[in-house]
Amino acid sequence: MRIAFFFALTLPIVAADFPKPAIPADNPMSAAKIELGRYLFYDKRMSVNGRESCATCHRQELAFTDGRAHAEGTTGELHPRSSMSLINVAYNPVFTWANATLSSLEEQALVPMLGTSPVELGLKGHEPQFLAAVVQDPLYQRLFPEAFPGETVTLTTVTKAIAAFERSIVSMRSPYDRFRYGHDDSALNESAKRGEILFNSSEHAGCFQCHGGWSFTGVVRYEGGPASEHGRFFNTGVGEYREPNRGLFEQSKREEDIGKFRIPTLRNIAVTAPYMHDGSIATLEGVLDHYAAGGRMEHANKSKLLRKFTLSAQDKTDLIEFLKSLTDEEALHDPRWSDPWPASR
After folding, report:
1. With contact defined as beta carbons under 8 Å apart, do 260 and 247 qualify?
2. Phi and psi dihedrals of 292, rounded to 5?
3. Cα separation, 90 vs 100, whole angstroms
4. Residue 100 near residue 251 (C-beta atoms within 8 A)
5. Cα–Cα distance between 121 and 137 in angstroms, integer?
6. Contact 234, 303 (CB under 8 A)
C-alpha cells in the first residue's frame, strides 16, 4: 500500500493534487510499517519502568497532546514545555518547540526515548532490555518481518516504524475543511465565517501572519517543495524566558534567539489547552487577550508582528468559533491511530 492511498483516505474532500509530505528515501511508507509503528507508539515497555509510552504525552483524543502545561516523564520529572500536537506532523520542516536542527521524525523519536535532561521515557542505557522484549514478543515476531523484510530489530527500525505511523496522522476533515475545500457553505455557522475574516485581516487580528496556509503553521515541507524550507520561530512576549526555557537560544546560544519558539499548528486547537510553549494560558479567550495586548512581556526579541489591537466581545466569540471549526472529530477517534493493545494488558 502506497502513501498516496493513505492520504486519499484521510483527505477525502481535498483535490487530488493536494501536496503530499516529503518522505525520506530510506524510510518509505507501507501499511505494515505503519501498523508496527502504531503498536510501538502505544507500547509502555519503551519506558524504563513500564509506565509510559509515546502515547502518554500524545493522546489521540487531545489531538496527540496531553492536556498538561508541562509534559511529565515516566519517572515523574517535568519537561519545561508542553507536548506538541502530532497532527499533520508529516509536513513539519522541523520538530519540537525550540530546535531548528531537528528535521526528521526518526531523529525526533530518539529524544524522548534516550534523553536525560529531562528524562522522558528513560530508555538510555536500557536499550538492550527493550529490544530483547520486542524480539521475544510473538506479535512483533510477525510485525517486524512484514515491515522490514530481512532486517533485524534495532533502534533504527523501531524509530523508522514510529515515524511512519506518525506521518500517517493527517487531519483535514474538520468543518472548516468541508467549508473551504469541500465547498459546503453549511459546514460553518455565521459566527465562524466572520471569525475567519478577522483571522485573515491584517487590519484586525492578523493571525494568518504566523498561522498561515492550510496547516495553520505558516510553513510546510512537502514532496516537490523547496528543500530549504525551515520552521518559523518567534518571540511572542510570553514570559521572561529563563533557563531551561529560552527557546532557540538553548541550542544556538545566540542572544537574538532568546524567547523564540516554533509556531504550533492551530488545527484541533480547541482540544489542546493549555496554550503556549509553557502552558501558561489556559483558554482560547486568554490567548486572544494575550495577542490583543501585544504580548504579556516586553522583550528585545519580541516579534515586530505583535501589536496591540482591539477585539469586541463579538469579535472574540467569532474568532473562537472559527478556531473551534478547525477540530477534526474523525481524526480524534480514527481507529487507524488508536491504541491497538488489549485494555487488559
Report:
1. yes
2. -65, -30
3. 16
4. yes
5. 20
6. yes
Question: How far, in Å, CA of 330 to CA of 272, rounded?
Answer: 16
List, for residues 91-119, the tens digit of each pLDDT value.
999 999 999 989 899 999 999 999 999 99
Q: For residue 11, what are the CA distances in angstroms to 31, 121, 174, 182, 232? A: 17, 33, 10, 10, 25
Model confidence pLDDT, tens digit, residues 28-47? 999 999 999 999 999 999 99
Mapped onto helix, strand or coil, the DSSP state of residue 136 is helix
| 67's grid cell | 492536556
Q: What is the 3-state secondary structure (H, E, C) of 218-251?
A: CCCCECCCCCCCCCCEEECCCCCCCCCCCECHHH
Strand partners, 116: 119
Q: How far apart are CA 89 and CA 108, in angstroms?
A: 11
On the CB side of 149, CA atoms within 13 Å amount to 3
Give the three cell numbers for residue 231. Answer: 520552521
